[in-house]
Amino acid sequence: MILYPNAKINLGLNILSKRDDGFHNLISVFYPLHNYFDILEIIPATKFLFTTSGLNIPGKTNLCEKAYALMNSKYNIKPIHIHLHKNIPIGSGLGGGSSDASFVLKGINQLFNLNIDNHILQNISLEIGADCPFFIENKVKLVTGIGDVMNDIDLDISEYEIRVINTGIHISTKEAFSEIVCDNTNNSLQNLAFLPIEKWKYSITNDFEKNLFNKYPKIKESKQKLYDSGAIYSSMTGTGSTVYGVFKKS
To answer: What does CATH list as the number for 2-151?
Structure first.
């Protein structure tokens, strides 16, 4: 079985408040990038095995391994060999790790004919990470809560070209949130997203840009480069460090 876990971008990312459990309430539109993806191969095996190629993946335990362990604990599945070819940079705000994990859940569900519905898969994926549930249905969503509350939003920018610049800077979620300022009044993204795209530049923001642009000027320069190249709208995605631009197709 071959799967193609894709990236996502954030159209707006506003941090509304800090919760008692230490997480933050947010609002964002998650938009899938189906043409920017990793590659997963999942096959039956005599014992569990996880291998990788492509970009280097730091850390001892990958989210794909966590996804298998979680499904095995719940459904007592047979061993598999997962091979991940990594194209989406780590710590880039593109959601690659979350996508990989969710696609492993979906792949296991298909491989072993478990017939688990998407709602249950979303709940399972949330045990791995806050961004993971999005990749189960993998379509445009208005995301609130800690990223776990998702509603369909009828937003389609497929007539535009989306260009991505990865700065190569690794920013951990912990680092990004360490200096964030919450603003509970900045919660109108569901309305702003339907403004003409030409107005997004002046109304839709990513709250992480302010501090991270000061700390990493290269990210700010990449955003300006996209505007200089003719982007209608440009933004950092997630907690960085990738920026994207929305262009009219030539």
So the answer is: 3.30.230.10
